[in-house]
What we know:
The protein is of the alpha+beta class.
Amino acid sequence: xxxxxxxxxxxxxxxxxxxxxxxxxxxxxxxxxxxxxxxxxxxxxxxxxxxxxxxxxxxxxxxxxxxxxxxxxxxxxxxxxxxxxxxxxxxxxxxxxxxxxxxxxxxxxxxxxxxxxxxxxxxxxxxxxxxxxxxxxxxxxxxxxxxxxxxxxxxxxxxxxxxxxxxxxxxxxxxxxxxxxxxxxxxxxxxxxxxxxxxxxxxxxxxxxxxxxxxxxxxxxxxxxxxxxxxxxxxxxxxxxxxxxxxxxxxxxxxxxxxxxxxxxxxxxxxxxxxxxxxxxxxxxxxxxxxxxxxxxxxxxxxxxxxxxxxxxxxxxxxxxxxxxxxxxxxxxxxxxxxxxxxxxxxxxxxxxxxxxxxxxxxxxxxxxxxxxxxxxxxxxxxxxxxxxxxxxxxxxxxxxxxxxxxxxxxxxxxxxxxxxxxxxxxxxxxxxxxxxxxxxxxxxxxxxxxxxxxxxxxxxxxxxxxxxxxxxxxxxxxxxxxxxxxxxx
Length: 490
Ligand SMILES: Nc1ncnc2c1ncn2[C@@H]1O[C@H](COP(=O)(O)OP(=O)(O)O)[C@@H](O)[C@H]1O
Ligand SMILES: C[C@@](O)(CCOP(=O)(O)OP(=O)(O)O)CC(=O)O
């Protein structure tokens, strides 16, 4: 059986730092998801210098390219329509020609390549699949849908859920190509040997900007490459010149890990133990670029007011990050006592967590730590609503406010909010996930009940949790449930 080169990359949820993270003065808390994109590359027998890319989850999603003298050209009009894929192939192959040499690269491309790209079901709305199977919208129903389920539509028609499909796709495709073309060893992604991960980041970041036609904050590509972290963006001027002149020479000097102009910061971060992130997709959607345009315009027109509000939001975002990290420290100090407090607060509403005189000092620290996260996330929501009102943008519209208020008042729910730019897109929650909950209900079950009965918005759960491992990583095709099967679908 063949063993293709497979590299996966996770999706993202910006739980704090929306808008602010566009400015290098502020940081964002980005959580990477267990849901991933996978790119599998095999040598083909299709003929020399032909690269065929397939996305079997979609109709009409086979694109064929031909490579000559380091240039990758679509062989027909259809192949030119996936700009993201085409640019990733063009710039990664050309970088391989430049760094590995013509002969070595030609040898790998000699019989052509077959590339298959798939994304976990969470990246796309599974409402249609659930209703076709007559299943309620719950996380357990999601687990009974076939992995990498065909969506029955073309890519342009699919309903995305906001986990950052294009960033995860570009990162897995670019990284898999770098490994397959022997520009970086796979140990660069498994063991962080050398600076291959940094190179993959810089190249994926540049290609994603080029495909999107703008230099965004880059937190989504960063999460796909590095996993969860506190993200501070790079100066956009690192990439800006390449947007008009993407020549191989300027690309290779710009993306070099030795290029000191890359000044993004990746600080370690994870959600605390015995908690679970929950995500729901809202079938309404919002257009992030237009929300961003309006907020930035308001900031420009009202510099003082915006500065005051952004400083406050930033303080709250930093407090949230440190309160979450403090909980991880408390767990490390005494995992058993920490676990008993998580169980204890799982059946209480946040307001009751800090009013118990029977807790000893350590236990009270843990309970107060969780309360601090609750309080801070509520204050972030309040400030983001204020930003929305001032900029006249529905960052947390009333229907989302009602939904989040109902969820956040459930026993065992720590906090939540609207991820990223907000709008009618999605919500995130952090709930207690004790080792066992008996005789009580799990906090996540309470939340699922609220979601399934909420009638102001069409809420559908995602199955993603936090990805606790690295970002981009090599995979073995047979260890990922359904991956070999998906790559064999036509
Ligand atoms: N499974 C896939 N296979 C190939 N290309 C994909 C796939 N999923 C997403 N893409 C590419 O990413 C683009 C979506 O980018 P964008 O609208 O920025 O999405 P997002 O907001 O999820 O990042 C698609 O038009 C397509 O070019
Ligand atoms: C506003 C932002 O800071 C965050 C947007 O985050 P989302 O998660 O909402 O992004 P999309 O997946 O593109 O919709 C813009 C940015 O940082 O680029």
